[in-house]
Specification:
The structure holds 2 protein chains of 2 kinds. Helices cover 0% and strands 56% of the residues of chain A. In chain A, the strands form 2 sheets. In chain A, strands 2, 4, 5, 6, 9, 10 and 11 form a 7-stranded mixed β-sheet that branches. Chain A has a 4-stranded antiparallel β-sheet with strand order 1-3-8-7, with no helix packed on it. Chain A is an all-beta fold. Chain B is mostly beta strands. Classes of the chains: A mainly beta, B mainly beta.
């Protein structure tokens, strides 16, 4: 399967700052990547579908101006949490899809103070 | 989008007993149904999956059944072991590859 990495693995930031999370597909050219958010003891919630070279598709209820997604190449998608607040603290996971199967990154834990 | 429900939210079984987790989905176009095991702070790990053209699949102690008409699928773990303790998620995938996860089941296997 595809190998997916994320950076950073853990980030702590002050309220009001922006944080960028990178998702890299190391051995697979991904025209599509997916971003999920997982709060403690809850399920993974699909936030958006990242499309290489075009705008991301956001799920209902997810603010696109708050969570900026850029998919500039076939191996890199970035998620920027703008003006982060404590309620944005969560585990963010990206994935790469290949014929239905999903290969998940290791996740990024964001803590907003 | 797709709506996936999962039951129970917590499940405790004695070692050696069987565990069953059930999920329902709403979108009849969903065609792929994976099950994941997730340990705290780690990425989900695929344990078994089933596609919409198959009714049942088994891999050693783990089996999954799918009823397309009723839009539900189940995970069966037999001869449970303490290392099976984890949170399990079902998911339904649409043709566009978007995955929608169930709410999770915290399984505890009591030695």
């Amino acid at each position: 399967g595809a190998v997916v990495s994320q950076h950073p693995s853990w980030v702590i930031c002050k309220s009001g700052t922006s944080v960028k999370i990178e998702c890299r597909s190391l051995d697979f050219q991904a025209t599509t990547m997916f971003w999920y958010r997982q709060f403690p003891k809850q399920s993974l919630m699909l936030m958006a579908t990242s499309n290489e070279g075009s705008k991301a598709t956001y799920e209902q209820g997810v603010e696109k101006d708050k969570f900026l997604i850029n998919h500039a190449s076939l191996t890199l998608s970035t998620l920027t949490v703008t003006s982060a607040h404590p309620e944005d603290s969560s585990f963010y996971i990206c994935s790469v899809g290949s014929y239905n199967e999903q290969f998940f990154g290791p996740g990024t834990r964001l803590t907003v103070l | 989008g797709e709506n996936v429900e999962q039951h129970p939210s917590t499940l405790s079984v004695q070692e050696g007993d069987s565990a069953v987790i059930k999920c329902t989905y709403s979108d009849s176009a969903s065609n792929y149904f994976p099950w994941y095991k997730q340990e705290l702070g780690k990425r989900p790990q695929l344990i078994i999956d089933i596609r919409s053209n198959v009714g049942e699949k088994k891999d050693q102690r783990i089996a999954v059944t799918l009823n397309k008409t009723a839009k539900h699928f189940s995970l069966h773990i037999t001869e449970t072991q303490p290392e099976d303790s984890a949170v399990y998620f079902c998911a339904a995938s649409t043709p566009g590859n978007q995955f929608y996860f169930g709410t999770g089941t915290s399984l505890t296997v009591i030695p």
